[in-house]
Amino acid sequence: MKMNARIFTTSVLAIFLLLCQFQASAAAETVMISNLRVKEAPPAATATAGYFSLHNHGSAEIELTSVTSTSFGGIELHRTVIKDGVASMQRQDSIKVPAGGGVEFKPGDLHLMLFSPAREFRTGDTIEFVFHFADGMEVTAPAKVEAIGDQPASDPHHTHH
Ligand SMILES: [Cu+2]
User: What string of pLDDT tens digits covers the 161 residues of the chain?
Assistant: First the structure.
């Protein structure tokens, strides 16, 4: 009887591990997070920002609800809005991405607001993030720390006025 119990336990564990692997690969095929980067901040900074590209290769809409990292005390989804020449940041509850679509988190637009860094991060450091979606899917992605300017990258469509 003791032997049977052990075989049973081992089988359950094996199936569980297989399921985890399946879920991980399914998520990786559906969601692609690329160019994930964190803006280098001075040692005393209480917050910095993160940027990335997200593409939904699945056949259904996905909804990014939160991003977490053990390297920060708190993370919010923000959008910078310019109204009457004044820039302000608005917290977003979630970001929906249609099937086959994508969204760009970039300077001057959508960004991750990263509060209370656990330590000082320097250019070249790697920080791990977990992206959480409304359907329970989780995607882990590494970010590179970079010196990123506050202004959006120059857009060739806007160089001629
Ligand atoms: Cu912000």
Answer: 555 556 555 555 555 555 545 555 556 579 999 999 999 988 888 999 999 999 999 999 999 999 999 999 999 999 999 999 999 999 999 999 999 999 999 999 999 999 999 999 999 999 999 999 999 999 999 999 999 886 554 444 443 44
In sign, the C-alpha dihedral spanning 25, 27, 31, 32 is negative
- Cα of 90 vs centre of ligand 1, distance in Å, is 7
| Ligand 1 centre distance from Cα of residue 89 (Å) | 5
The whole-model pTM stands at 0.77
Q: Sketch the domain layout of the chain as residue ranges.
A: 2-148
The CATH classification number of 2-148 equals 2.60.40.1890
Going from the Cα of 35 to the center of ligand 1, the distance in angstroms, rounded, reads 19
Q: How far is the CA of 11 from the centre of ligand 1 (A)?
A: 47
Q: Calculate how far, in angstroms, residue 127's C-alpha sits from the geometric centre of ligand 1.
A: 18
Distance 122 CA to ligand 1 centre (A): 20
Cα–Cα distance list, 86 to 82, 83, 92, 93, 122 (Å): 5, 5, 19, 22, 30
